[in-house]
């Protein structure tokens, strides 16, 4: 029971999102947590041994018995079709990979979500950076002004699995590669090959920043760009595209429900023509 007690405590007291206050959470037994009166099945992670009765591989988790239909694959390990399909063997009906799947159909809300078909049992929701950038690059910038080329720089919070030589991830800025530009090219063929990018891992625990620099086909002043962002935010992208005029910092957005929030006071524009 020790593992379940630790897991419950970790859920209730989160250093980033704060204390869980919605419904009382307690351990019923070694396989069930209670959220109020609602029971939720729990399976130990892959580090646990088989001798303890825990599940090591996805196909060993009896998802069919739990009536879990849609599985969000966020382990960062089972990101291709074959590996993710192990969840289907356990009884799941659909798998959503929360990373750019190597060969899975990829969808980003606000870009190509309407192309999703109900007969697909494994899909990728791409990366957090692609979800942040793709709708802005597509609906707001490319559709209205045209993108000739662009450079994106991501400042990403530290990953639990980020490796360094000496393990000092919490005191360093770490240059990293990013597959976001490639992922955007997959969901937005019109921008394929037009965007490139770089990433830096920062010693923060949540919320990332994406800086996008583009060269436009159609001349535009930033007020026009800002007006387009506000129009989409209050129209077709209401609920997942936000904007802000406030002088805020990254932690002010912890728990924000929007996929991206555009800072409308932090920008630069130049006329190179």
From TrEMBL:
PANTHER family the record matches: GLYCERALDEHYDE 3-PHOSPHATE DEHYDROGENASE (PTHR10836), GLYCERALDEHYDE-3-PHOSPHATE DEHYDROGENASE GAPC1, CYTOSOLIC-RELATED (PTHR10836:SF112)
Classification via Pfam families: Gp_dh_C
GO BP field: glycolytic process
Name the UniProt record assigns to this protein: glyceraldehyde-3-phosphate dehydrogenase (phosphorylating)
EC number: 1.2.1.12
Domain Glyceraldehyde 3-phosphate dehydrogenase NAD(P) binding as annotated: residue spans: 1-128
InterPro entries given in the database record: GlycerAld/Erythrose_P_DH, GlycerAld_3-P_DH_cat, GlycerAld_3-P_DH_NAD(P)-bd, NAD(P)-bd_dom_sf
Pathway the protein acts in: Carbohydrate degradation; glycolysis; pyruvate from D-glyceraldehyde 3-phosphate: step 1/5
UniProt family annotation: Belongs to the glyceraldehyde-3-phosphate dehydrogenase family.
Highest classification ranks of the organism: Eukaryota, Viridiplantae, Streptophyta, Embryophyta, Tracheophyta
Keyword set includes Coiled coil: no
Domain of life: Eukaryota
Species name: Eucalyptus grandis
Coiled-coil portions: none
Keywords, ordered alphabetically: Glycolysis, NAD, Oxidoreductase
Gene Ontology CC terms: cytosol
One function term, GO molecular function aspect: glyceraldehyde-3-phosphate dehydrogenase (NAD+) (phosphorylating) activity
């Amino acid at each position: 029971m020790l593992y379940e007690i630790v897991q419950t405590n970790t859920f209730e007291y989160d250093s980033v999102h704060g204390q869980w206050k919605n419904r009382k959470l307690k351990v019923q037994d070694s396989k069930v947590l209670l959220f109020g009166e609602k029971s939720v099945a729990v399976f130990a992670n892959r580090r646990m041994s088989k001798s303890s009765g825990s599940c090591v591989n996805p196909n060993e988790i009896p998802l069919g018995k739990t009536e879990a239909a849609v599985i969000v694959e966020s382990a960062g390990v089972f990101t291709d079709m074959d590996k993710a399909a192990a969840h289907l063997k356990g009884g799941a009906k659909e798998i959503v990979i929360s990373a750019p799947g190597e060969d899975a159909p990829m969808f980003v809300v606000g870009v190509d979500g309407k192309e999703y078909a109900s007969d697909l049992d494994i899909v990728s929701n791409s990366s957090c950076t692609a979800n942040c950038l793709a709708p802005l690059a597509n609906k707001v910038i490319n559709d209205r002004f045209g993108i000739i080329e662009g450079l994106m720089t991501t400042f990403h919070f530290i990953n639990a699995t980020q490796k360094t030589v000496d393990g000092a991830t919490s005191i360093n800025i770490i240059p990293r590669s990013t597959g976001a530009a490639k992922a955007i090219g997959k969901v937005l063929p019109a921008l394929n090959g037009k965007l490139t990018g770089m990433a830096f891992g920062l010693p923060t625990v949540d919320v990332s920043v994406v800086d996008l620099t583009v060269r436009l086909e159609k001349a535009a002043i930033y007020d026009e760009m800002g007006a387009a962002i506000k129009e989409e935010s209050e129209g077709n992208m209401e609920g997942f595209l936000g904007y802000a005029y406030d002088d805020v910092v990254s932690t002010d957005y912890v728990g924000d429900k929007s996929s991206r929030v555009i800072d409308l006071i932090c920008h630069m524009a130049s006329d190179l023509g």
